[in-house]
């Protein structure tokens, strides 16, 4: 079971929504589309589902060209960010509707609806209308409808974005488990790097309608191919600072460290993630000015200014620093990625290479 | 001493002004002609149902109601049937000239029906449709279809497009989706549109009179019969008036819960 996109692109009224994309998704895998809003996650999903026609390229399903095929014939299931159910029908009828359309027998429908409802803890709500349910239950109803038909391609478009934090955690753990058994291809769109890491599987990072990298999630996270991917796959965004490599050393202006072996001399962008900054050594010291501090429970976000570059640091403990204060932050060189002037990865962070 | 709130007074005055003519009509319909013309009474001195009896037993009278109901019903059915897919197209698709077309539909609503009476008469004569129910029903589509499209479009826009797509993904064909899923969602909109179609068709007189002679004559045209050489039959005319109000009142009663939602024009 494979879904293959061959040079699939979409242009709407002269604006490029999706640049020509090649992508192969295998059966039984969880594939995360990760990108900020407007990066083209939903557009790409709609092309996969057949809801939109690509302006170029072909969509292949198990090797067969399904470009332009009616979505009714495509055996896909989709769950939207908004809780989309049929408000006029009861939860039971909502879940049963794809089976009824497919012409399953009454007993068969009843058995499958009950099984899915049980799995998603909807059994006590079967007689209610979707609008009488809580947000989480409504979305579970939508998930149940996607699940019950046993589709081979399941598209989940930020299914948890509109839920409160507790329910998200709960469903985030449940969803992969629920879908694992079915062996279908899963595509899951999200804006949050953390969610992608929790879901595992493969990740495709998107930026402005282009897939910047596709591969196993931990690999994309640890070894981003370019600065764009690293930026997308970091929350808060990756910090950057220009540097110069010469004579086996990286020169950051104020401080220097050993360069990875075999790296040609020249100008580079160094990148590192917020959680690798610390207030106390060891590591390379950088003098910054505090812009804002945000406290998130036991950790603090420091929004810093490093010689005009905005940096974000995630440090332990409650740090209450007044804006404008001078602070020295430390960075372990093991966490520094080096990108060339074009933004391509020149050297991954040493820690990632070890992993 | 009991104090009367000013707002209650205003409300009372408003209701009196509003209901007095209807009260008077009702009382007249229950009086004899002599009582109507000779004395001034607030309450029928000589209560009679003879006026109603005249109307409800004489086919040339009650067929007027039947005719009106037939063409109004036909018109409502045609208008809604035509307007549903049209409104769906306006709410879901972008096509060439969609905005202009939508506006042009509304302008039809603004033109007085009298403008169309002559060409319609010529046209319908040519097709031998004069004095049929369908002729009036079709003529009334002139102003009812745009109105229904306008109302329904508002309701449909309130339904997220994702519901359509989810249904297609679930395997629904468009007609099945439309009838099974979409129409229940905009049921109140359909109710409101049907109500307006009914009302406008029921009260429209000019086209209905022009296009009918005897077989499909509407009640409002028949009412003119009460003027005769022997004078005016006030009682029967009043009774006919009361009976004309009843269908409208009934329809309003049945859709009253939808109407409130309907004037918000959508937002499901």
UniProtKB/TrEMBL annotation, chain A:
Gene3D superfamilies: 2.40.50.100, Nucleic acid-binding proteins (2.40.50.140), P-loop containing nucleotide triphosphate hydrolases (3.40.50.300). Keywords: ATP-binding, Cell membrane, Membrane, Nucleotide-binding, Transport. Residues 3-233 form the ABC transporter domain. The keyword ATP-binding applies. This is ABC transporter ATP-binding protein. Belongs to the ABC transporter superfamily. GO terms for cellular component: ATP-binding cassette (ABC) transporter complex, substrate-binding subunit-containing. InterPro entries: ABC_transporter-like_ATP-bd, ABC_transpr_FbpC, ABC_transpr_MalK/UgpC-like, Mo/tungstate-bd_C_term_dom, NA-bd_OB-fold, P-loop_NTPase. One of its GO terms (molecular function) is ATP hydrolysis activity. PANTHER family: MALTODEXTRIN IMPORT ATP-BINDING PROTEIN MSMX (PTHR43875), OSMOPROTECTIVE COMPOUNDS UPTAKE ATP-BINDING PROTEIN GGTA (PTHR43875:SF1).
Automatic annotation (TrEMBL), chain B:
Its main location: membrane. It is found in: Cell membrane. The chain crosses the membrane at residues 7-26, 69-90, 102-121, 133-156, 177-203, 234-255. Pfam families: BPD_transp_1. GO terms for cellular component: plasma membrane. Keywords: Cell membrane, Membrane, Transmembrane, Transmembrane helix, Transport. It is a multi-pass membrane protein. One of its GO terms (biological process) is transmembrane transport. It comes from the Bacteria. InterPro entries: BP-dep_ABC_trans_perm (IPR050901), MetI-like (IPR000515), MetI-like_sf (IPR035906). Residues 65-255 form the ABC transmembrane type-1 domain. Belongs to the binding-protein-dependent transport system permease family. This is Sugar ABC transporter permease. It comes from Neogemmobacter tilapiae.
